[in-house]
Amino acid sequence: MSTAPVSRRSGGRAARHLARSNPLEDHLRPIRPGMSGGLYRPLSDDAIQRIHRGALDALWEIGLADPPESGIAAMTQAGAVLGADGRLRFPPSLVEDALAAANRDVILHGRDPIHDLDLSGNRVHYGTAGAAVHLVDIDSGDYRESTLQDLYDAARIADTLDNIHFLQRPMVARDIEDPREMDLNTLYACISGTKKHVGTSISEADFVQDAIEILHMAAGGEAAWRARPFASLSCCFVVPPMKFATESCQVMEACIRGGMPILLLSAGQAGATAPASIAGAILQAVAECLAGLVYVHSLAPGHPAIFGTWPFVSDLRTGAMSGGSGEQALLTSGCAQMHQFYGLPGGAAAGIADAKLPDMQAGWEQMCSNVMAGLSGLNMVYEAAGMHASLLGFCHESLILGDDIIGQALRCVRGIEVGEDDLSLDVMRATCLGGPGHYLGAGDTLGRMQRDYAYPALADRSSPKEWAEKGRPDLLANAKARKEAILATPARARLDPITAQAIRERFPIHLP
Amino acid sequence: MSTAPVSRRSGGRAARHLARSNPLEDHLRPIRPGMSGGLYRPLSDDAIQRIHRGALDALWEIGLADPPESGIAAMTQAGAVLGADGRLRFPPSLVEDALAAANRDVILHGRDPIHDLDLSGNRVHYGTAGAAVHLVDIDSGDYRESTLQDLYDAARIADTLDNIHFLQRPMVARDIEDPREMDLNTLYACISGTKKHVGTSISEADFVQDAIEILHMAAGGEAAWRARPFASLSCCFVVPPMKFATESCQVMEACIRGGMPILLLSAGQAGATAPASIAGAILQAVAECLAGLVYVHSLAPGHPAIFGTWPFVSDLRTGAMSGGSGEQALLTSGCAQMHQFYGLPGGAAAGIADAKLPDMQAGWEQMCSNVMAGLSGLNMVYEAAGMHASLLGFCHESLILGDDIIGQALRCVRGIEVGEDDLSLDVMRATCLGGPGHYLGAGDTLGRMQRDYAYPALADRSSPKEWAEKGRPDLLANAKARKEAILATPARARLDPITAQAIRERFPIHLP
């Protein structure tokens, strides 16, 4: 629409190029992990209260079925009531006790402290998650079974991407059949691929001791592990609607004893395992996570736990999951507000594509929920990159492109500064009244290009002419080239060789 | 994550299919034009006040250069002050008078009243706009010069898409060299391609009379036109920073006399023709549009005008425009709040891709600003579909896919209802306590699948297995097939033959 004045333009351009070539100090970077969101508020204060009171009602009137014996003992001791129908019910006062005692200062540690995540307030962090069973091959379009090597490669790629702040295990290593070996290898692949915080799951309580032993060895001993636990348990402790997942609860108990932070994960699916209404699905997830909070409280008050309301969406025409929908973005954003209401560190799912390949649909689906989750101030945005086919497929190239998507979302989370300097009246006066009549070479512009503007790594902003001259660069081909370059360089996050060797001698590690 | 129970599943599925096959009454449609946004508020109340006061300061201290003689006469009569430097300055009291007298009940009419747009409150509408000079061919990847036929085809396609609520001319008919013929043919192609509201631009005041005559003929006479003006003038009345576009102002004056609603369009580019800071670019756009409002007020108090703050973004590394950036989404959303502060109907740009083709980048870019614009409650989201290469290229297939993107954004705008029924406690009780233990066949689920869930037309949600069985449907190929199907059916919005013939006899219409 507007045409930029051309006078002095090349001079301004050279100055901008010079300015941009100087590396930025960290505090000047335009986007960072942990920027604060919260300016998008899909729920009114009254709506939040109604959902909260409804969740309390559900916990007292409906309660949860299938608690393990150990959980019954701990929670009834704390004040829960076991009904004749086998359901455990929670009086509001017990929930309020658990809320009062909950840990609100959770730091999720990285193996390198530079990657520590502070989950207070409305600070936003993005990372992977999931249990995809396929790796998506962008050249053939094939969905093939995902392997341990795929998982390790994902961890290595994520380690290099600035806007992927943590690595929760996104794929299942289907080439490892033994469940114990799968859990241990999954953990090993994640922590040797990245120094960022790792989330993983453990399928049986009997495996926990081995996993904790690997973590002790990687940390340099139990004390070091407990001081800075760099891996958390992703724990589907409920089977919605309103039933405990008996075995997962036992895993959780063992991990709490082992000092692992717990992601209390309630993954209902609206219209299938949760109410079809957005508010109802949020309410049920909140109720279930409050039950999880009581559970943690009854065992170890103040143990670090993440309020993991992860309601998903059904496409009600088929009953299949639709993680890429607008309804999903609303569910996740509404959950973020409930976390803030409780003042608890919270997480939910966003960034999922229903698209099978990293195409235009994948782009719009991944951005919609990622940016809304960030704007709503969600502490932990899980599943944020690489996820396709409603969580069934993971794609390395898509993970790399997700770094650009999340960078853009983070720029939106950062928002609009309106200090005196930002209003720019002085710059306007100097420009319009006897000045050059444009802002291209202004000192204010040069400064802001570094501090204020986020630049994508792979997204192409060239003109059609430049683009044609460059041979029409292809987004996916460029992502693939970057993947190959990352994987061709030595793994920078690997465990020191002595530790790695010790773990390999002690446990059946399949990674070459 | 969660696994839906399978018992009774096929029965529920059949019931859902049956329910979905009944057409919905209009008031039950899950998404509609004019849903109200506003729950995303990037600017605090204090920030809004600061920007407003800064804009008043800019109008009084800096003023605008290059007003036409006619504008000087009208605006100084109203209270503006012409300086010795040729700049017209506006005392705050004059701006406040113009704000007080502004038309707040603007309806943008369609040629069919079913397409009328009510711009009050935070009601959100999406449509095309722009002046792309290329049509994007998705098969070859070529950017070729856009033609009048391309424009007419775009209008015909837009006419069929539920989530494209208006058609502002998105492309330039480069096959028509004579400027007058180009303007008249552009108008004719738009109004004969769709019965939705049309926006267009006129390049010289001398052409306005002809354009108005076409509108009179299409409406069935001047009185009918003036009662329901179904075309508005997209008017770049300023050349940022802070200069009137002399000739465009003269066009505006003539169109006001002719009864056309005016889009007061200020299209600065942050870092080039507007300050580099987001807040500063918004402030300058607000100041310029307030000047435009004074201009309209001085000529015809209460004439329908849209507050068109359209600040764009520079990629400051190159000075080139980046319409697909997060900074763009913030600019547009911040502007929406300023419109609401003034209580004026407003518009801004969103949905622009920098990507040259409808690829993953295009998807995330188009969604980011479209959904944020909607959540911020922008009345008129211009450029919302089909736009590539930072406004240089328009793509018919992308326009069609944009209908899905905007549908999803509108679902997000609709938000989360939290009535008693939405909390779903009764459904939870019935499901969990002696019920089936899932929600698949519940009456609540069946009802909500129609009322609450938006379904995309082309986005694929099938499982990898179904997708492979369907032959891996390609998003762009499906969009192209839909385009061809639309263009193969008779144009449903065309003017009646007698009117069309009369216009063709009177004016050199090039459309076959």
Automatic annotation (TrEMBL), chains A, B:
A single GO BP: methylation
Cross-referenced InterPro entries: MttB-like_sf, MTTB_MeTrfase
EC number: 2.1.1.-
Keywords (A to Z) from UniProt: Methyltransferase, Transferase
Biased composition (Basic residues): 10-19
Presence of the UniProt keyword Cytoplasm in the record: no
A molecular function (GO) term: methyltransferase activity
Origin: domain of life: Bacteria
Region (Disordered): 1-30
Gene3D superfamilies: Trimethylamine methyltransferase-like
Family assignment from sequence similarity: Belongs to the trimethylamine methyltransferase family.
Protein's name according to its UniProt entry: Methyltransferase
Source organism per UniProt: Mesobacterium hydrothermale
